[in-house]
Amino acid sequence: MKVGILGTGRMGQGLGDLLRRSGHEVMLGSRTPGDTPFPALSLGEVIARSEVVLVALPHIAIEPNIALLRTLAPGTVVIDLANEVRVEDGRLRSALDEPHGRWLASLLPQVRVARAFTHVQAELLVSRATRQPDTWAVAVAADDADALAIAGELVRSARYVPVSVGGLDQSSVLDPGGPLFPNMYLPGDMQDLIGGKDA
Ligand SMILES: NC(=O)c1ccc[n+]([C@@H]2O[C@H](COP(=O)([O-])OP(=O)(O)OC[C@H]3O[C@@H](n4cnc5c(N)ncnc54)[C@H](OP(=O)(O)O)[C@@H]3O)[C@@H](O)[C@H]2O)c1
């Protein structure tokens, strides 16, 4: 698959490496593609060339780039990795009053939004997948069945086990403040915790 990743930070680079190893054609999109120590394209080039797009940008970078994101072809599957975190009573919470994926889907009604990888810490993302492949669960959520299937396929390609938590309205479990964030679970433990099923 031609996979575009917007954002070249810890999540973007880590997932880029994992997905490339599984044979996907991965394009990383940067604000400054000429300055990165690895090949990158502009955000617009990645949007134009990709079959599926992962949003690995800080939450605060999404609205300033919304005009660009609205150039995504209708029906494109967009996997939202972004979190907006605040601290309340010493605990991490989402700063939004709705699931992050629902928020992004309302801004981008032309695409099919899925949510995945948001509860995985960047520090563990590559090591768990490479040292213990096909072992740890990654929760996925989407309203659209094809988007859910593609998110599940990419999770498998990254050498994790996808567990579906349902649609975007159920996806707050993998947002900050949800029971999965920021933890790793074995698939059965995740299913017991949130009632998810194999994706
Ligand atoms: N870190 C984690 O453990 C973790 C886990 C799950 C989810 N997440 C979420 O995943 C997203 C990415 O996290 P990360 O840890 O990879 O972040 P990061 O290391 O800070 O990287 C984010 C990247 O986004 C790009 N960027 C930053 N500001 C931008 C702007 N104003 N406009 C366009 N692009 C901008 C930058 O790439 P360029 O400089 O190349 O443009 C930057 O490298 C965040 O929303 C985060 O909450 C993080």
TrEMBL record:
> Which keywords appear in this protein's UniProt record, sorted alphabetically?
Oxidoreductase
Concerning SUPFAM superfamilies, the annotation shows: NAD(P)-binding Rossmann-fold domains (SSF51735)
Q: Does the keyword section mention Oxidoreductase?
A: yes
One Pfam entry name: F420_oxidored
Q: Which residues form the Pyrroline-5-carboxylate reductase catalytic N-terminal domain?
A: 2-83
Q: Which GO terms describe its molecular function?
A: oxidoreductase activity
Q: Which InterPro entries match?
A: NAD(P)-bd_dom_sf, P5C_Rdtase_cat_N, STEAP_metalloreductase
For this protein, the record's PANTHER family field holds: DUDULIN-RELATED (PTHR14239), REDUCTASE (PTHR14239:SF10)
- For this entry, the protein name equals Pyrroline-5-carboxylate reductase catalytic N-terminal domain-containing protein
Q: Which organism is it from?
A: Streptomyces smaragdinus
